[in-house]
Amino acid sequence: MKMSLLANRLRATVGLATTCMLAIAAVTDATKAAAADARVIYMVIQTHPSTTMGEVRQKFDDARKATPGCSVRDVLVEPVDPGTYATLRSIVTRGTLPVAANANAGTAVIEPLKGADGSWCIDLQSAFAYIDAVEVELTPEARKTVQEGDASVATVAIDAPNPEGFQLRFHSPGRYVLTLPKGRLPRSMKCRVTEESDAAGVKPTTREIVQAWPDVGRSYLVTLSDVKGNEALLFASLQDASKVGNPIKEIQDATKATLMVASFLEVTPMLVELADGRVVFNFPVPQGVDPKRLWVMFPLTERQAADEKAALDAVLREEDGFKRIPKVIRKNMATGPLSPGAGKWVEVSRKGPYFNGTWEIDVARWSEQLAGNAAAVGDRVLLIYEFESPAGGVVPIKMENGYVVERSLPGWVSGLRAAP
Prior knowledge:
Number of domains: 3
Shape: globular
C-alpha cells in the first residue's frame, strides 16, 4: 500500500505500539465521552520477518474474544512496506527518521517484498548495475532446506538450477527479488556487481558486496472497525500472554497527539481493494441525496450485469415497483464469501462521506476462474442507494440514470492477479 493510500485512511488521534505496533486511532475527547459510539482504530504493526497476515489476524481475534469490555466488529490486515511503519513511528514519537538499512555507498538495500512472504528486494542503488547470482550464508536452521544437506552457503542464480525453495529474478533496473524458503532467514549475502556506465567508451566496473542480512521485519496495517467500549482493555489483552500467543511486547501511548491529513489535491480512493482475503468497498456518497446504506452486487460480467439489471427494471416498471426493490434485494443477500457464479447483494454501511465496508471473497476460486477462463471474471457492479425514513421505511433513491446504477470497477481483476 502506498503511503498516500494509507494517509487517506488516518483519522484523528495517534498511539504507538511495538511486536511493534503503531496505533492510529479515530478517537477524540468527544468520542471518549460517548464510549457507545462506534469508531475505527488503525494500527501499523512491525513483526518478525516470517510473521504472516493470518498470524497477525489470529492475535487480534484472540484478544477481542478475551476482552468483554471492548467489542470489534471486524479486523482487516493488509501488508505495508517497512518504510511506512518507520515514517509513522518517527512522526508519532517526534524523533528523526532512521537511516535506511544498508544505505551506505557501495552496498545494497535489502528489504522484504510487500505482500510476498519469503521474498526480499535487493536494490543495488544504481539502474546500471546488475548481478547474475547471490551467495547466501545460511543459519544452521536454514541449512535444512538446502539440497546439499549441511552446506553453509547457498548459491542462487538467475536462470539456473537452484536449491529447493530459493529463487533469484530480475525486478527492474538495479533491483532483484530473492525468494527464500518460508521461515528461513540467512546470516548474510555476497554478490558480485557489474556496473555499466552511460558514458561512451567507459568500460564496466565490478565490485563485491558482502553484508549482514537486515533484521527489518514485516509491517502490516490492521484496521479495527466499529470499536465500542474501552480500547485500552483490548490493548492490554494484546500484551497478555495468557490471552494471546506471542503477545505484543510494547504499546506506547500517544493518544494525546493528534494526526491530521490534508491535501490541496483532490484524492479519489480506490472503489474496491483486495486485502487479507477480503474485498474493501469505499464508495463516495453522491451529492444531493442522503442515503442510509448502499447495496452492491459484485462482481459481474457484462452479460450478468445486463441480466440482473433487466430483472430489476422489470420490477420497477410495475406500479409502485420501486417499493418492492428493498425486499427483492434482501431475498438475494450474500451470506458467505463471494465466489464465481450468480451475483449476490452486499450491504455497505455509510461512514461519513463514504460507504465503507469489507466482505470476504473466495480468493482460491476466483484465481482458479481467472486462470481457466479470464473472460468469465467480470468487473461490473450494480449499485442501489437506499433511503431510510425516521419511521424506518426504506426505498431506493432514484439517481440520474435510474434506481440501478451500473459501473465498472478498475483494479478488481488486477488485484486478483496479484493476490497471494
